[in-house]
Amino acid sequence: MTRIDVHSVNTTISGFVSPQDVANFLGIKFAEVTERFRPARPVPLASLGPSVAASQYGPRCPQPVNHGRMRRSHLYEGVIESSNTPVSEYECLRLNIYAPAGAVSARAMLPVMVWIHGGGFVFGDANSEYDGNYLVEESGRLGKPFIFVTLNYRLGYYGFLSSRELAAEARSEGEEYYPNPGLYDQRLGLEWVRDNISLFGGDPDNVTIAGQSAGAWSALSHLVSDVPLCRRGFVMSATVISFPSEAECQETFDQLVARAGTSDSATVKEKLAALRAIPDHKMSEYLDGALLLRPAWDPKWFSGFPDRVRLDQIESLPVRVDGLLIGSMKDETANIRPAWSKMSVQKICEAVDSVIPDESMKMEILNAYELNSHELETVVHGIVKLTSESFFSLFPEKLGNLNGNVMVLRFDQTDTFEQSVFKGSAYHCLDLPFLCRFPAVAGEHATVDLRETTRAFTTAISKFVNGHQPWEPFHQARKFMILNGSRSGLADSQENEVWRRFFTSEERARCLVDTGRLLMTYKFN
Q1: Record's superkingdom (predicted)?
Q2: CA distances from 240 to 162, 444, 517 (A)
Q3: Domain 2-246+284-323 homologous superfamily, CATH
């Protein structure tokens, strides 16, 4: 592969040109972590030295094993597993740039899409499983070229632990307190793009912030914050989550302190010293199999919003935002079906009963989703429907109702591979190989329908990132795009989803949303 250099003041960044004629600049350090739980410090490009080798992915944030990714391995044939990349809590804040090779030398000022990976704020990274070579190549063929950037951020307790003690430490050091360091890591990455992407042929004033699942929630949080780092947003399968209370955040911190063998009566310094001494494998172990960590409420980040308002409740987008493309999967939580199917009807009913926060709504929720049936298949179907709607699928329509350029899509293409545990479903994360146009779904051996879905997805993304409407805004005629091979096309919103019955008051809506989250993250014995 051919070497390609980008020159800045006192610094040369060396990447390579792939067989797709895409310039790859990998593992560029944009920030550094000096101490666990503390805010990261930006790393200016010039401070990296006279020469920067950017031909390999950088370290990932330490994290537990992602078993969900293993079950989708058939979709990543030929793709290097990210899990083979080293981990480092302190050196993981890296980003990767994929740009048309000609755009780099010409300083072409192309639009930029910055991708934030998902994983429940527990798993994931920005490396090989978001390889942008095929996507960037195809955007050029479509005449809608853009630059694709992926970035890492701190996960788990490294990036999403909040407490009185951490706030007190920040005050004692004369620093601003960041309840969610992982979100601020992302912001530092976006600021790096703003300051440096023109060197790689990108337009810093034409950035689309994008992401999936927890990354979609993150992208929306950047879109609505008062720090203007992006012009539009593209999000898939954004999680509908309520913010934890301060008491819940403190309880998580206190439990971690106890597991570190430190007394609750210890000083702030003693507690934090104990937590900072926990080795990485124990930091993962102490997550106890959690699939999701909810970010804490940050009044500075969400200034101007009512206290702890969920992102699906926002009533308008900032004036600077000129478009939002938001979508979900047809069968978002079908991948939890096997686990629930192993339980008896009685055990499922007991589990559901134990997580519904409002006693007065239990029977209504059970009846609405047929969870009081005596048939196992009906009950499991109800669990999938409830979690799909309340944890994911209501988001696109809620934001689609906003005035402005909000386009909605639904990914109906199913997993057609015989070896798949989830064959026949359009489940959470299935869209990611289509996003990156990996060979299993876009290569010459993929079926016609898989390739057609990939083509339609890439076309919509490329148009949107270049500032064009891929189809009409949802609020105009309440139409959304279905992506499903040769059957792709616009459809009318049926407005017959069960979740609507519960969105008649904030209390009822929160109960349903929290029920969906608790079932989605239910820990089986």
Answers
A1: Eukaryota
A2: 20, 37, 8
A3: Alpha/Beta hydrolase fold, catalytic domain (3.40.50.1820)
Buried b (16+ CB within 10 A) or exposed e, 17-55: bbebebbbbbbbbbbebeebbbbbeebebeebeeebebe
183-226: pLDDT as tens digits: 999 999 999 999 999 999 999 999 999 999 999 999 999 999 99
8 Å CB contact between 189 and 218: no
Q: How far apart are alpha carbons 166 and 172 in whole angstroms? A: 10
Is residue 269 within 8 A of residue 257, CB to CB? The reply is no
Whole-prediction pTM value? Answer: 0.97
**CATH code 3.40.50.1820 region(s) in the chain:** 2-246+284-323
Q: Which among 339, 241, 333 has a CA at the least distance from the CA of 293?
A: 241
Angle between helices 376-388 and 345-355 (to 10 degrees): 30
Cα–chain center distance at 174 = 32
Task: Give the residue among 431, 350, 419 at the shortest CA–CA distance from 383.
Answer: 350
Q: In the prediction, which pLDDT does 515 show?
A: 98
In the three-class reduction of DSSP (H, G, I as helix; E, B as strand; rest coil), residue 380 is classed as helix
Round to whole Å and give the CA distance between 196 and 189: 10
